[in-house]
Write a structure and sequence with these properties.
- GO terms for molecular function: hydroxymethylglutaryl-CoA synthase activity.
- The protein is an alpha/beta fold.
- It contains 14 helices and 13 strands.
- Strands 5, 6, 9, 10 and 11 form a five-stranded mixed beta sheet that branches. Strands 2-1-3-4 form a four-stranded mixed beta sheet, sandwiched between helices. A two-stranded antiparallel ribbon has the order 7-8.
- About 40% of the residues are buried.
């Protein structure tokens, strides 16, 4: 699980990720016409994180950049991505590129939930002729729930109903997948019905691995309901399914027999389709809005580009409260350049394992300094990657200033 002390915040995350994207892909700042931000890590009730990103474009003189922050728990990044893609496809598009930033600092008060925290961020470049192509059909489910929320603005910590949260996530997946299948059937009436066999990989919002494995099994349950004659289910006996065969879907959300049956049935598929997407999640923990796209980065950064070409990815986005979508991405060109630029294996390997007490100390420091002004952070910058942004100072009017970790120099 990744964590930070008082030297980083969501703004430094965003500056680091977007600056790195511009550099790695040699993007001219003048060629960017939209920036969308998805985060739930708020440090200001009015001023958007996106406004801070404009500092990266000041030297170029480019102030004509549309887009702003989107917020709803872990879903804001997907709203941001949809907004960016819709802009590129619209009559308003001016031919320039869009950037989507997704990231959060996931922290919990002392207790059982603290172990499912984490931190991380990513930035995505959106434009024409991309190797990863968003398919047009989305299955979306939104509702008013209190499974996870942050009403206390003096604290970083959320209010969480763990049992409700898991059930809401699973129920949202049910609704989204059903809606997606229905929309696909209407749009492509001559095509075969949607099943998970139509996807090579499944990429989930990943609060923690066990929930992802359960929900992969959940999708196989839905495919079984639609067509129990599919080859995958040939070994399922009447006895094995008797307890839930005629149970309404909504009544099976927490049914252990359903869970055990289809998680067990899908073990091999889970290893093939889902495990390659979990590298960042396993190392960095829950990244909230960055979670789904960290899982996408795990796939792109872990599978060589020629092996991903032609593959199709199922994507499930979820944010508590709740907002969720099921959609698909097709790999239409080699992702080799992205694989090389991400350099994911080396970067994750460079992260250091620290004693638990250092994590506890960092959380205590963040808790004590969360609302301070006229404050200079005390955390070290020695552990930050070269080129990373960090918080230098919060003045007496709460205005934040940032520094950059120097790039390493090689002596001649």
């Amino acid at each position: 699980m990744a964590y930070i002390d008082d030297r980083e915040d969501i703004i430094s995350f965003a500056l680091s990720a977007v600056a790195s994207l511009l550099k790695k892909y040699n993007v001219d700042p003048k060629d960017v016409g939209r920036i969308e931000v998805g985060t739930e890590t708020l440090i200001d009730k009015s001023k958007a994180v996106k406004t801070h990103l404009m500092d990266l474009f000041a030297a170029s003189g480019n102030t004509d950049i549309e887009g702003i922050d989107s917020k709803n728990a872990c879903y804001g990044s997907t709203a941001a991505l949809f907004n960016a893609i819709n802009w590129v496809e619209s009559s308003s598009w001016d031919g320039r590129l869009a950037i989507v930033f997704a990231g959060d600092i996931a922290v919990y008060e002392e207790g059982a939930a603290r172990a499912v925290g984490g931190a991380g961020a990513c930035a995505m470049l959106i434009g024409p002729n991309a190797p990863l192509v968003m398919e047009p059909v989305h299955g979306t489910h939104m509702a008013n729930t209190y499974d996870f929320y942050k009403p206390d603005l003096s604290s970083e910590y959320p209010y969480v109903d763990g049992r409700l949260s898991n059930g809401t996530y699973t129920g949202a997946l049910d609704k989204c997948y059903a809606t997606y299948r229905s929309k696909m059937a209407r749009r492509f009436p001559a095509a075969e019905p949607v099943t998970m066999d139509g996807f090579d990989y499944a990429v989930f919002h990943s609060p923690y691995g066990k929930l992802v494995q359960k929900c992969h099994g959940r999708l196989l349950y839905h495919d079984w309901l639609a067509d129990p004659t599919l080859p995958l289910y040939a070994g399922l006996t009447e006895e094995a399914t008797a307890s839930f065969k005629d149970t309404p879907v909504e009544k099976t959300v927490s049914d252990k027999a359903v869970e055990k049956t289809f998680v067990g049935l899908g073990k091999k598929l889970y290893q093939e389709r889902v495990v390659p997407t979990l590298t960042c999640s396993e190392r960095c923990g829950n990244m909230y809005t960055g979670s789904l796209y960290g899982c996408l980065a795990s796939l792109v950064g872990g599978v060589p580009g020629d092996k991903l070409l032609g593959k199709r990815l199922a994507m499930f986005a979820y944010g508590a409260g709740c907002a969720s979508s099921f959609f698909a991405i097709s790999v239409r060109a080699s992702t080799h350049e992205m694989f090389e630029a991400l350099d994911l294996e080396a970067r994750l390997a460079a992260m250091e394992v620290r004693p638990c007490q250092e994590y506890v100390d960092a959380m205590n420091l963040r808790e004590k300094t969360h609302t301070l002004k006229d404050y200079t952070p005390v955390g070290s910058i020695d552990d930050l990657f070269p080129g990373s942004y960090y918080l230098e100072r919060i003045d007496d009017l709460y205005r934040r200033s940032y520094g950059i970790v120097p790039e390493k120099t090689v002596a001649a």
